[in-house]
Amino acid sequence: MQPASQRTQNSILALFSFFPSLISLLFLLHPFHLPACLSKSCFFPASPSSIMLDTSAKPTEGEPQSPTSPTSPTLSGSRYSKHIVLTTYPGQSGIDPIPLEWGAPDAKSRGPVVVSRSSVLLKRRNAMGAHGGSYSIYNALAIASGELEPDFRPDLSNSQPTFNFPWQPAWGDKTKIVSMDPWGHDIVNQFRDELDKGWDIRPTMAVTRANMNFAEISEAVKEGKLEVDGSIVVDASGEVRVTKVAVEPVWYLPGVAERFGVDEGTLRRTLFEHTGGSYPELITRPDLKVFLPPIGGLTVYIFGPPERVSDENVKLALRIHDECNGSDVFQSDICTCRPYLAFGIREAIREAQNGGSGVVIYFRKEGRALGEVIKYLVYNARKRGGDTADKYFTRTENIAGVRDMRFQALMPDILHWLGIKKIDRMLSMSNMKHDAIVESGIKILERIPIPEEMIPTDSRVEIDAKINAGYFTTGKQITTEDLTAVRGRGWEKWEDITH
Ligand SMILES: [Zn+2]
Predict the structure, then answer these.
(1) CA of 404 to the centre of ligand 1 (A)
(2) CB contact set of 31 (below 8 Å; sequence gap of 6+)
(3) How far away, in angstroms, is 299 Cα from ligand 1 center?
(4) Average pLDDT for residues 452-469, to the nearest whole number?
(5) What whole-number distance in Å separates Cα of residue 25 and Cα of residue 21?
(6) Compositional bias (Low complexity) spans (predicted)?
(7) Are 271 and 249 spatial neighbours (Cβ–Cβ below 8 Å)?
C-alpha cells in the first residue's frame, strides 16, 4: 500500500501526463518529488515514471514571463529526443541497476561502475556523475559542438597498464578505499563481456611509464648530489625513469560520509545543493551509492621498480604533494611548494637507488583546494595588509571562510591501493597529512622537513605560520610572538598606486 503522499503525487502525475509543458512548470514551481527527509531511515518514494521536461515549451508571446517558468534552449538536429529524463527513482518501471557491491573481494563480484546515460544504460546505470572528473564538461562541449558522437566508444587496444599492480586486501575493503575504483585500471580484463556487449564502461585509472627531466634533479646530478645509475637516473643530463598512475575520483558515498563524520543523507543533499542542483539522483536514488564527482584526481610517480612499493622489507620514501601551479610550474617564490616537490622527487630517487622505493603523489587540489582565484585574492590581502606570519591564516579565513579545504580524509586511499603498510621517510611537514595516514592504519617512521636552504625568503611567512599551527619541524619551534616579526616582501617596488 502506498503512503498518501505517494498516491497524491501519482495522481498529480497522471493528471498532467497529457500536458508535458505544465509538468515541466510544476517541476520547477513545486519540487514535490523531492523527499524532505534525507536520513537513512527516511522513506524514499518511488515514482511510477520519470519526470519529463518538454523542451519544446515556449513562453507565450506577449505575456510577462515569471522568473520561475522554464525557458527552453532551442534544440537543433535530432541528436536528442525532445523529452529530457531529469531524474529517475528506485522501483520505477524498468529501473534495474547493474549490481555493484562496493568492497567485494574481486572485480567480477563487485561489478562494473556504469555511469552512462545512454538510452541502453540509463535504466541500468549504477553510478551518478560522469567520467573524466572536471574534464567531463569538456567532453560535453565536444559532443555539443559536433566534434564527438554521443555514442562514441573508445578503442582500448594496447592501453593496458605497463605494470600490473598486485591485488591488495584493501581493494576488497569498503572502509579502506572509498574515493577511487580499485579496478579502474583493469576494466578491459575484468569486464570484457560487458564491453563486447557495447556497454559504455571506462577506465578511471591508467598506468604508464615516462622519462622526465626536472631542472632541480638535473642540477643535483651535475653537482654530484645524485648519482647516475643507468636505470633510475639514466644519464648525466639527469634524465629519470618513472612509472606513473593517473587516478580519477570514484566515490562510494557511504564510505565518504563516514570519513567526514556526517550521515549519507547530509552529504548527498549538500553535494546536490552546492553543485547548482546538478545531480538530482543524489536525492532521488538513494540506492545508487557511487558518484563520479567533477573534480580533479591524482597522479602517482614511482621511482625504481614498482613492485617494491608494497614490499614491507624495503624502505619507502614518500611525498604527498598538493597542486600549486604558481610555484610547481611557474616557480613563484611566495611558497615552498616547488622546492619541496623537487626535494621529494630527489629523496624518492635516492631511496630507490638505495634498493628501496620512492613515491611522489600529486593531488589536483590547487591552492589548498580553494582554487587560484581565492588564492590570489588572499595574496593581495596579505601584501596590502602588511604580510606578517601571524596574520597568514586569518587572511585566508577572511576570504575563503576556512584556512584549508584539502581535507586529507580521502588521501590515504591511494596508499592502501598501492599496498603501502609503512612509510620509512615521510617527506612532508603537514600534520593533517600525517594524521590522516596514521589514522588509516599506515605507520610513519620518520618525518623529513624541507631543508632550510631550499626555503625561498618570501615563503617564510607561509612555512613559519604553518609550523606555529602544528606543522612538523626538526628546527626551531615558532611561537605566536615570533610570527609577528616574520614579514614577507611588500610591493614597494611595484607601482601599486593610482594614476
Ligand atoms: Zn604553493
Answers:
(1) 13
(2) none
(3) 18
(4) 91
(5) 6
(6) 62-78
(7) no
CB 111 within 8 A of CB 126: yes
Q: Is residue 384 annotated as part of the catalytic site, yes or no?
A: no
- What was the pLDDT predicted at 71? 53
Which listed residue (404, 413, 447, 464) is catalytic?
Answer: 404
Angle (CA) 199 252 98, round 5°: 30
- CA 460 to centroid of ligand 1, rounded, Å: 12
Q: Let me know: does 328 contact 199? Beta carbons within 8 Å.
A: no
> Strand runs (DSSP E) across 48-136, as ranges?
52-54, 83-85, 127-129
- Measured in Å, residue 322 CA sits from the centre of ligand 1 at 9
User: Would you state the cell numbers that stand for residue 385, as one nine-digit string?
Assistant: 595588509
Which residue carries 610513519 as its cell? 444
Cα–Cα distance measured from residue 296 to residue 249, given in angstroms and rounded to the nearest whole number: 7
Q: Which residue has the cell 626555503?
A: 455
For residue 201, give Cα distances in angstroms to 47, 116, 132, 250.
27, 8, 12, 13
Question: Active site residue: 406, 413, 425, 464, which one?
Answer: 406
Helix, strand, coil shares, percent, the chain, to 5: 35, 10, 55
Mark whether 404 is an active-site residue. yes
Distance CA(188)–CA(191), nearest Å, equals: 6
| Mean pLDDT, rounded, for 129-139 | 96
Identity at 134, one-letter amino acid code: S
pLDDT digits (tens, 9 = 90+) for 136-178: 999 999 999 999 999 999 999 999 999 999 999 999 999 999 9
Q: How far is the CA of 339 from the centre of ligand 1 (A)?
A: 9
